[in-house]
Amino acid sequence: MKLISWNIDSLNAALTSASDRALLSREVLNTIKGEDADVIAIQETKLPSTGPSAKHLEILEEYFSDYCIEWVSSNPPARKGYAGTMVLYKKGLTGSMTAPRIGAPDTMDDEGRLLTVEFENFYFVNVYTPNAGDELKRLSERQRWDELYADYLSGLDKDKPVIACGDFNVAHEEIDLANPASNHMSAGFTDEERTGFSNLLAKGFVDSFRYMNGNVEKAYSWWSQRIKTSKINNSGWRIDYFIVSDRIKEQITASNMLDSGDRQDHGPIMLEINI
User: Fold this and answer.
1) What is the dihedral of CA 101, 67, 89, 92, to 10 degrees?
2) Catalytic: 220?
3) 109 has catalytic annotation
4) Rounded distance, CA 200 to CA 156, Å?
5) Is 115 left (phi over 0), alpha (psi -120 to 50) or beta?
6) Cα torsion at 64, 220, 245, 153 (round to 10°)?
7) In a 3-state reduction of DSSP, which class is residue 88?
8) For a FRET experiment, which of 30, 64, 218, 224 has its CA 20 to 30 Å from that of 134?
């Protein structure tokens, strides 16, 4: 089975805009289409509470005609057009979708950050983890999210194996970003966030990329848009993950990044697993 995850940073912009960045986003969509994955997870859709429009669905049909589409969007009291997640899976698969609430602080449970599809042999969880924010203003809430999310996955794992993916908004170890020394107080690389990810793995999960590629390979999934040369210089971060239950880790056959061309921000990641 092949699975792909990508933070698209606005589904509407990617599908309907004529900007240079939108054109680059559509190149990424074409790359994903060419992979013919069984399941595709998308984060940061930024759709309204009513979800994808008829136009969005029409365009998605052009890319992914053989897929069922599930989505969850931000709803009041959370901000409009914020966060949001989506899962597409092959029509030959039987899936049951839920948008769980984990008791997260602030409006996090209303931001469309978590979407789970139960398949016959495993749970598939798509997550867009809250960012700690500028000046770490949301760090304490983020820490609580990490605790609750880890408990949620652990609970699922008691029933059947879990494959969880998405934008986790944390570089776990120093190898996971190009410039660790200058970023220890930056959102996404604080001790608190890294500990939260360690605690998640300790509940019975494995970071599939590190499991398959060891602790020497540097590869990134995100390059800042604020720094025009970040991708040219490969000054990136690995903050997008596929994590899987320990008991199915030996069934992983590949875990890597897909080429996102010249587009900065997130690139897609891919997992192949015999399940």
Assistant:
1) 120
2) no
3) no
4) 13
5) beta
6) -80
7) strand
8) 218
Which position has the token pair 């499991």? Answer: 211
Q: Which domains does the chain have, with CATH numbers?
A: 2-273 (3.60.10.10)
SS3 assignment, position 92: coil
Half-sphere exposure of 226 (CA within 13 A, CB side): 0
Instruction: Provide the mean pLDDT of the chain.
Output: 97
Q: What is the pTM of this model?
A: 0.97
Residue 206 in tokens:
């494995």
Of 67, 89, 123, 128, which is the active-site residue?
128
For helices 54-63 and 20-35, angle between their N-to-C axes, nearest 10 degrees: 50
User: Could you tell me the two tokens for 185?
Assistant: 């107080």
The stretch 139-145 carries a mean pLDDT of 98
What are the structure tokens assigned to 40, written together? 């595709």
3-class state of residue 37 by DSSP: coil
In this prediction, residue 220 has a pLDDT band, given cuts at 50, 70 and 90, of very high
Tokens 């959102």, located at residue: 187
Residues 38, 110, 146, 167: which is the catalytic one?
167
